[in-house]
Design brief:
The structure is a homotetramer. Chain A is globular, with a radius of gyration of 19 Å. The termini of chain A are far apart. In chain A, helix 5 packs antiparallel against helix 10. With about 200 residues, chain A is an all-alpha fold. Chain A has one domain: PgpA-like (YutG-like). Chains in contact: A-B, A-C, A-D, B-C, B-D, C-D. Chains C and D meet through helix 2, helix 10 and helix 11 of C and helix 2, helix 10 and helix 11 of D. Chains A, B, C, D: It comes from Paenibacillus sonchi.
Chain lengths: ~200, ~200, ~200, ~200
């Protein structure tokens, strides 16, 4: 039996990775709405008509990227193991105490922001410093829970969603101006159609 | 007149940015086919049925991203100014001589690779070191031309296109296996449809 | 003559690169003290006894790194050329208007922050968003001056200096506790001695 | 007792972090000499007189950086847990199989390379693709051992050490030419003196 199963080559199931991402965010107490609220906080100044629905949609699109899912799952895994005291010393201590010279959490966060380009760097740093909304709760050190990674990851997803919105809004603006469109815009339009279809099915 | 025009707020025209990217790559002597050949070199080992048409398409998709266009235009601009001797010393000398401790060209290249995630890091480093095909020509220091930036940018676009192919091939594989699909796959499918439509119009 | 000079191989003069960095920061209206004030703003909360002298020293040390000098010189060069209207369209427009989807300035800034590791990401984003002190002046769009790059670079140097301080303060703390020291600490100590010597000569 | 200990604030012990890094590299079967051999492979072409002793020294200096130690410890931790089957699915499968769309290992590797700047990007990609020496052994999938992270980390340490050598050699060259020196060079000299002293004690 073991032989037989050993011969089946490993094949990634993307849907499982996507589902695990949603599952673990939820299990660690973070809702998409809370992340969307960070996006709204960052973007309402630039787009007064921005709706919470749009923010949630953009958070979902960020979370549908494999690069993002990898970072979320890896970060939450390290938080969970630190909470259970199962990491090797001194890594256990550094993650447990969110040690100020330990920056691998920021590195993972940046891999998320980077997917939508460098324009999100600033937004990430800003929310990570101010810790509004859900980030304040994740940073509460009195709960016994450890969110050294998740804290940064949530801020990064919000920053990435903000970048995504900035790109999309520019495309919309140009379409309204009747400017001829670049392939990327057409893609965005068809993507939106596909997503809308998906959501209404 | 000047007053009037001064009052029109600046509005980015994405199509112009996209067109300038294509124009300048061409003007600096790089064809999409040459970049696609680097992609083929990097990927044929993993996907024996990969066609040049697919490689060209993926290069085009990478080049349709704003983040990529920004890096291409900025890099070529610095190459052109260095060629004309118009940069301030010692920056002029460093770019003119592709100085080994000057790494801003690599930094711009990485912003391109990053758009499709970290899986492209290795491919970029590999082609940049071996300098196959078009990269050998761009590195010829006897022509009087300066391609300190373009050299790295072309390798980065090829690496990014390779990452894009890896993501798409995985999605195709899962569709063939009849696995239920993540939103991203649906997006990819509709995107492909939109692009095909665009190309046949 | 041309032949003779052509035969002298290019040899980088690091001192010239360092001097040009200081010269251009000054010429573009930024003093080390102003950058040090940003550092103080970011760090006084953590180190109440931190002096301006220490902040200036750490800014100087950041600026002595080649990677940082490269980014500073390249960024200022692009600002100056944009101010003179000498860049090619549409790059000219994007840099002149600090266009929100143009992120190469952030990319260069990040190469500076990165030299002292990921712990500086947050500080960079924070000052870049709030624009305290010198950053407010650099962002004043009514002066005719263009500081699209310098603005981000100054914030990045301040963030990097903050990271440097965090590393040094930890080393000092451990030395006071009489803990045996890692090679890096010894290096830091001898480096400090060398620098002090340099400053008193 | 628990109360008392709970009141002692966490204080990082840098020496323990440094020692754990050396310990875990050794325990996972990687010697400094093997990493130094990769450095030699990458650099002998540029510096024919480079000695193995210098390569080992530069590897040690890279490993003395906290940012590097954090990445090494985090990466090895994930490898070890994957080997023990203790990660959550599907992360367990992705790391166990070194899945091609999982790139967090490359992200950690890049945080190491970045400490010495972007000039090391290419070297990292090159050794990671060719897998010479120790990297071939770490990639042997028939041993039951999992080195998904360590493989990339070792290549990154070698690339970073190569960058460090490039910077130091330039400083030496300028000193030999009798050029006046930048503060960084003086630092390097005193650092070298301190290190030599350390090694002979």
């Amino acid at each position: 039996m073991a032989d037989a199963s050993a011969k089946i080559p490993y094949s990634l199931n993307s849907k499982k990775v996507a589902e695990a991402t949603t599952f673990w965010l939820h299990k660690r107490g973070v809702t998409l709405e809370e992340i969307a609220e960070l996006v709204m906080l960052l973007q309402k100044k630039y787009y007064p008509n921005l709706t919470m629905e749009e923010c949630v949609h953009n958070v979902e699109m960020v979370l549908s990227k494999r690069e993002v899912q990898n970072a979320v799952l890896t970060g939450i895994q390290l938080d969970v193991l630190a909470e259970e005291g199962k990491l090797l010393s001194p890594l256990q201590d550094m993650i447990e105490n969110d040690e100020s010279l330990y920056g691998v959490d920021e590195i993972l966060a940046f891999s998320i922001v980077n997917v939508y380009g460098s324009i999100g760097f600033t937004n990430y740093g800003y929310v990570d410093k101010l810790k509004p909304g859900v980030l304040e709760r994740l940073n509460d050190k009195t709960t016994g829970q450890i969110h050294t990674y998740l804290d940064d990851i949530v801020g990064a997803v919000a920053a990435a969603a903000s970048s995504r919105i900035a790109h999309r809004k520019q495309a919309e603006r140009e379409q309204e101006l009747g400017q001829p469109h670049a392939p990327e815009d057409l893609e965005a339009a068809s993507r939106k159609a596909a997503t809308d279809k998906l959501q209404h099915e």
